[in-house]
């Protein structure tokens, strides 16, 4: 059994954070758009056009409780 949620990855991590009253909803930043190859003006304009600046985003990375994209998503 597994879980991938805005509170984290894994059953234990997700449940622990839920029981502790943590929330997976957060304010977005321009870096969340992952538009690394675009210039700053394009990134800023795109971010300003978002109708919402809050989201329930799955935490990514290689630390405990984070979704490691490299283990699941392969580029072609």
TrEMBL record:
GO terms for molecular function: acyltransferase activity. Transmembrane segments: none annotated. It comes from the Eukaryota. Gene3D superfamilies: 3.40.47.10. InterPro entries: Thiolase-like. SUPFAM superfamilies: Thiolase-like. This is Beta-ketoacyl synthase N-terminal domain-containing protein. The lineage of its organism: Eukaryota, Viridiplantae, Streptophyta, Embryophyta, Tracheophyta.
């Amino acid at each position: 059994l597994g879980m991938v949620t805005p509170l984290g990855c894994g059953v234990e991590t997700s449940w622990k954070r839920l029981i502790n009253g943590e929330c997976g909803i957060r304010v977005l930043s321009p870096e969340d758009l992952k538009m690394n190859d675009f210039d700053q003006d394009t990134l800023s304009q795109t971010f300003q056009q978002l109708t919402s600046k809050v989201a329930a985003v799955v935490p990514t990375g290689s630390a405990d409780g984070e979704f490691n994209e490299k283990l699941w998503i392969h580029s072609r």
